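Slide 14.
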Amino acid sequence: MAVLIDDTLSGEYANSYVDIQYADEFFESHFDTTKTDTWAALGDDQKQLLLVQAAMIIEQYKFTYNMERRELTLHYDSRTGTVHDFMHVQYPVRYTWNQNLQFPRNLDVDSATGVTYIPEPVKIAQLEQALALKNFSITNTTKIQSGIKSESVELPGPIKKAVEYQDGATVGAFITTASVSPLALQYLSPYMVQADKVYRS
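Slide 15: predicted structure.
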């Protein structure tokens, strides 16, 4: 069964920030022709699965503060003629309280038109992450999670395998960055928040 993309803006069931058409256009004009060729060789079902998985990985990071439904207020936007259910706050929260993905946030609104949008670096991060998943090595990730820094074969003499472990690494520990593309992480880092806000009662 194919995984279907739902890229509805602020959608309750959205599972991707981009659709296949956007991804195809991005990779067609990519400066790295290897990435262009790799993406073009995939079928639509594979592309959809990679995009959804990439979005799931991105969503593990914190880009918004959590707010309870009772903490939100309704606001009428005369520019668009719509009612929004977020508080007027300067820190990032989901644009609507029941949207599945963290973007768009209350800060991702065009000041001239009042229209919400997904920041371009977030879309690019998802695309780079999707392609990184295509080339993902479960063997390397297993080594990282086991605390292995490097492996080598020592010669001359009897053949020996040398394994160097990370300082203070815990065998079997889960390292979240193991499967995240460094390029995607670079695009996402300006949007990350560190801790939850404390609200006064």
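Speaker note: The helical segments are 20-28, 33-40, 44-58, 120-134, 138-145, 182-188.
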